[in-house]
């Protein structure tokens, strides 16, 4: 591949990933510089194509990013980069392993100042106090996985296998935790319990949340640490309806990020991998790159295909479900009651009201 063609691929790739959301040449130059920085930061090692004449780390990164960002066939990508399909596939695996090993800190749970910034951001944007993250999910199509004890657990139809991508986002839509290894037909409540965040919520929620909470939809169990909407049977009062609207606004943050992620990295709409472990690496790589993009750019509104979902029952309607913990029910009521409350002329809520809300944040 000539340097001129490689440079052309870089510019096409940056545009395709929507990294360049402006038309100014200076913005394109900055994007190109960030790409070169990514190449430099990846450690020098024995890549699969390192012994091939004219094939450099730049080519390895370019081919991997192109594979992740398009639905182009591996054969077509191999022809574009003048190499073999097997090398394209192997370079992608190595690229994902290197990115997740060297940039894992780009997806991290908010603590201290980061947590306070997220709480302030959600409060300002949607009006929900004490919210540190929102949780959502989407489904990633894969080939029949060969690295799990029961591949049929991932089957949802005759020829369709899915992985559940569960993601947590802060107020800016940055991914703070992602899990992509559970069967797509598992209920969200079950997936959550088998994640690091879910286990922390059970074992040590104070260290994880410091009195704050996560916002989730009705497929998650209501607790003092994870607030969900009020069940709506058409009889909700004004305060509960207002609360539900704000919950939906918070959930739109994580849904928007998942939507943008799959638009920018279109391979996630049809991940041609027969390994859950490799699928998880690829998804984490895309989330890391997405967060790196958000460090210097605001998320752009993208138009693309509708997301794939399997409709799930609300947690409280499951045979093993319940209406929520007593602490969760009480906290949700308190939050709903506090929304839209007009401040007193003396400068705020009454002392007793502040004490009540102070139990949670």
TrEMBL record:
Family to which the UniProt record says this protein belongs: Belongs to the HARBI1 family.
InterPro entries, alphabetized: HARBI1-like, HARBI1_dom
Top-rank lineage group of the source organism: Eukaryota
Keywords from the UniProt entry: Hydrolase, Metal-binding, Nuclease, Nucleus
Main localization of the protein described in the UniProt heading: nucleus
Protein name, entry field: DDE Tnp4 domain-containing protein
Subcellular location: Nucleus
Record-level GO cellular component terms: nucleus
Cofactor: a divalent metal cation
Pfam families: DDE_Tnp_4
Gene Ontology molecular-function annotations: hydrolase activity; metal ion binding; nuclease activity
Coiled coil feature spans: none
Residue ranges constituting the DDE Tnp4 domain according to the UniProt record: 138-291
Keyword Transmembrane helix: no
Entry keyword Nucleus: yes
